[in-house]
Amino acid sequence: MVIYIAGASSGLGLHTAQQLQAAGMTVVAGARSFAECEGRAPDGQYRLALDVRAEASVERFVRLACEKFGPPDALICAQGLLNQNAAAEYTDQELNDILDTNFLGSVRLIRQVMPLFREKKQGKIILFSSINGLLGIPFQGGYTASKHAIEGYAECLRMEAKPEGIEVCLVTPGDHQSGQKQYRRHGAADSPESPYHQRYTRAVHQIEHDESTGSNPDELGKKIAKALCKRHLPARLLIAKPDQKLAVTLHKLLPTKWFSAIISHYYGQL
Ligand SMILES: NC(=O)c1ccc[n+]([C@@H]2O[C@H](COP(=O)([O-])OP(=O)(O)OC[C@H]3O[C@@H](n4cnc5c(N)ncnc54)[C@H](OP(=O)(O)O)[C@@H]3O)[C@@H](O)[C@H]2O)c1
Description:
By secondary structure, the protein is of the alpha/beta class. Helix content is about 50%, strand content about 15%. Strands 3-4-2-1-5-7-8-10 form an eight-stranded mixed beta sheet, sandwiched between helices. Strands 6-9 form a two-stranded parallel sheet.
């Protein structure tokens, strides 16, 4: 099985790539930081430079991967950027960075692999969403918007691709012990002059605590490997601790004001 995976230099993308490799799959791993170390890595993965924000880089990644290993059986979009700020204070640049990386970057990859899947009359697309693709939390408005964009897009893509034998799965992780600080940016709300500063600091403290005590990223990688080995992909893999799964259920069941009050309290806003 040949897998192309974006965002495989760090975090959940890296752990997933390692688990797929361990399961005997051929992994073509893409990330910007592979520009200096393209080719076969010691762990067996084949690395190629990839910047999902640049169409030419995405085209090159898919072309070189296809020349070397043939068309993929699956594409995994695991790249990500988390830009934290107050919803009302995000700059256009901050929102552009996050949407371009998390959402448009995946669309660029899908555009390139779709003709390859179509030729084989089969293919699997795995898009990394997040619990934030299903519900919002304070000071992650840009990230939450990007993940909601992926959710809506995937729902449409799934219906359009199915008749061509192409399946779409949303991976929805809760907090995992994986993300690197370099991909967590802080906007104006982080400044002591910001009217949001104190509440921002409390929320970010909780977010960082939850990530550092989060789930094991290798287990997520194993679940994705298992799903890929089955004949059909599930529409969604929600991989989270029980309290985060409960939050998803409560978000569906409770009146919006009640749910917002619970989440606000949890993140130190009330
Ligand atoms: N960690 C969690 O708890 C968690 C929870 C829910 C969802 N997620 C989702 O899981 C995915 C991985 O997140 P993470 O926190 O585990 O990883 P991370 O440590 O934040 O790593 C981000 C990855 O994305 C790549 N990337 C960033 N910009 C890129 C670009 N322009 N082109 C290509 N690759 C790019 C980075 O590689 P280069 O810098 O080398 O390009 C890196 O490999 C993301 O989609 C994230 O939203 C994570």
